Amino acid sequence: FQPNSPHARDVRYHLHPYTNLKAHEEQGPLIIERGEGVYVFDDSGKRYLEGLAGLWCTGLGFSEERLAKAAYEQMRKLPYAHSFAHRSHPAVIDLAEKLISLAPDSISKVFFTNSGSEANDTQVKIVRYYNNVRGRPEKKKIIARKGSYHGITLASASLTGLAYAHKFFDLPLDGFLHTEAPHPYHGAEPGESEEDYASRLAQMLDDMIVAEGPDTVAAFIAEPVMGAGGVMPPPATYFEKIQAVLKKHDVLFIADEVICGFGRTGNMFACETYGLKPDMLTVAKQLSSGYLPIAGAMVSDEIYQVLKEGSAEAGTFGTGYTYTGHPVSAAVALETLNIYQERDIVGHVRAVMGRFQERLMALGEHPLVGEARGVGLIGAVELVEDKAGKRNFDAARKIGARAAQLCQEEGVLLRPLANDTVAACPPLIIEPAQVEELFDGFTRGLDRLAGELGV
Ligand code: PLP
């Protein structure tokens, strides 16, 4: 790099999240300078279709004027206010009301945080508080799933079921367990139906709860469609059976809709898509279309009533952040939700998702693709060395990362995940022609990879 180029300065000063730091010194950053609709532009002016909506978040794309205006106006009117100790402000009140009006029926209150990680961290705290107030202090273990992603604070990284979130960090903390997640492609027995596979997974959860002792297990958390773990839509009947197990053992259900929420699966929440009745619901990302940091830990009235009693005894519900319900983030989130409703974003997703899934499934025929899977406007392909034997490449070859790199060269930004899975999750506003453009670039990238590998 030129000594004072942005690339050189990035390498010199910037400690990157989720990056192989050693490789970064060689490779340097892809510097994105501006956005327009579903596109972003790098510092050389090259245009990319943002096929992952940033990090699964920019539902409204990269140039929504109304969001910029909402932020500017709120910043001029009241740039900061808090909601500790009975204080409040209009932006947070309006947002809370709107969010509860959209949320599944079981949910009645929202606690705001700045990130999905903090929201799930707060859910862990709420679960503990709830059981302590109810006089069941031993009921505090939380079961998450292998391969899940729930965030990266100490508690939420403990929920996360991915090795890289634990290695060298002394995680997970005690009391965080991981059960098998559905991955029919590798996990189902030959000839096993989706329903039987789902029953087997539900039985594994039941067995784990019984082995640990139901009196010690407080909650179960799941993404309706697992995102960062490889885009795994649930097999038929999975959540129905899981929820029955949770009910049987009096275990709370936390639905993590951080990726799925706000239209991604063709309904406002994936809870609708898959018939979930959660006690707690986590939202983030598309809540503000990613324009400002804001997230929510949402709870049922039954939980709220217990928190209320506990706070009276303790003197306060002793958790919250300086920026909980930040007025500028709240104003932008409210405007985001208004736009989703006014433009019928769910209707738009339904109109384009058929073609999105059709093109995705067609990639399943590609010689490198073992499985294509998805729902709504989210999907992924898993690359394999041996299609018949469903055998992945040696992880050290980083085939998925190479695929994403080649797609990037072809003008489409995608995300490589574990098991050489490459994910697409474009802005919800994507138009039909752009769906074609996304998959044309995806296909060219995979074809080039096949050429390199001599397949
Ligand atoms: N939950 C899910 C399902 C996520 O995908 C993510 C982030 O990707 C999080 C939680 C954590 O959110 P954040 O990165 O805002 O802390």
Automatic annotation (TrEMBL):
Protein name (record): 4-aminobutyrate---pyruvate transaminase
PANTHER family linked: ADENOSYLMETHIONINE-8-AMINO-7-OXONONANOATE AMINOTRANSFERASE (PTHR42684:SF3)
KW Ribosomal protein (keyword) present: no
Pfam family, one: Aminotran_3
Needed cofactors: pyridoxal 5'-phosphate
Annotated SUPFAM superfamilies: PLP-dependent transferases
Family, per entry: Belongs to the class-III pyridoxal-phosphate-dependent aminotransferase family.
GO terms of biological process kind: biotin biosynthetic process; gamma-aminobutyric acid metabolic process
Top-level division of the source organism's lineage: Bacteria
InterPro entries per the UniProt record, alphabetical: Aminotrans_3, Aminotrans_3_PPA_site, PyrdxlP-dep_Trfase, PyrdxlP-dep_Trfase_major, PyrdxlP-dep_Trfase_small
